[in-house]
Amino acid sequence: MNRRTTDNHHAKMLDRSWHLARTPQEMSVADIEYALIRCFEAFGHWQAECLASVVEFAASGPENALLHMIRMNDRPKSVRDLAHMANRDDIPNIQYSLRKLIKGGLVVRSGSGRSGVTYETTALGRSVTDRYADVRADLLIDAVERMPDLAKRLEAAAHTLDLMTGIYEQAARTAATHRTRNLGAGSLLTVDSGGDRGD
Predict the structure, then answer these.
(1) How far, in Å, CA of 19 to CA of 68, rounded?
(2) Backbone phi and psi for residue 18, each to the nearest 5 degrees, phi listed first
(3) Which of 98, 120, 164, 190 is disulfide-compatible with 76, CB 3.0–4.6 A?
(4) DSSP character string of 5-71
(5) Which residues contact 21 (CB under 8 A, 6 or more apart)?
(6) What does residue 165 show for φ and ψ, rounded to 5 degrees?
(7) Are 47 and 65 in contact (CB under 8 A)?
(8) In degrees, to the nearest 5, what angle opens at C-alpha 129 toward C-alphas 51 and 151?
(9) Do 70 and 82 meet the contact criterion of CB atoms below 8 Å apart?
(10) DSSP assignment of 89-102
(11) Which pTM was predicted?
């Protein structure tokens, strides 16, 4: 029995259905969603370890991403620019991360007023991001280059993820537009979000 036949046999023995994967189409979407969750966590681990290898500064994945987006093209960016680039709407969290990067000496704030404030990397921030890029090239990019045709597959994957981003955004807008509490027997459920009190 060859490898492909064995894989197909094992796949038939597994039950891939669950509450978010009741049909073949739901299974396909659930598979990529689960893969995204695992990839996001792995990406966060990589970001943390790569940054730790070049500077003693503890940063979350989103904070690390903000630092590199601020450095991108070496031009100052506003909070609105950064939110748009990262597809985020949690402005208070972005501002908190920016204050942390400023305190660490990696980013500087310029300008004044609600629309005139911008952020850019300091000399230290540029040095850190340059060294981060070197470690990334030596470890991550080298690993990608060693995989046959992976670079081409990554281009297609990025395009697919962009398409899925648009689909998720449209679905979210539709859900928000038509959300209602007056659904009779199908009304919204309520839960206690106070945590486990040990009752």
Answers:
(1) 38
(2) -155, -175
(3) 120
(4) HHHHHHHHHS---BTTBSSHHHHHHHHHHHHHHHHHHHHHHHHHHHHHTT-S----HHHHHHHHHHH
(5) 27, 29, 30, 31
(6) -60, -45
(7) yes
(8) 85
(9) yes
(10) --HHHHHHHHHHHH
(11) 0.79
pLDDT tens track, the chain, 199 positions: 555 565 555 556 677 778 888 898 999 999 999 999 999 999 999 999 999 999 999 999 899 999 999 999 999 999 999 999 999 999 999 999 999 999 999 999 999 877 789 999 999 999 999 999 999 999 999 999 999 999 889 999 999 999 999 999 999 999 999 877 655 555 666 777 665 555 5
Q: Which amino acid is at 119?
A: Y
Distance CA 161, CA 156 (A): 9
CA distances for 68 relative to 40, 62, 82, 113, 192, angstroms: 17, 10, 10, 24, 39
Structure tokens at 15: 């039950």
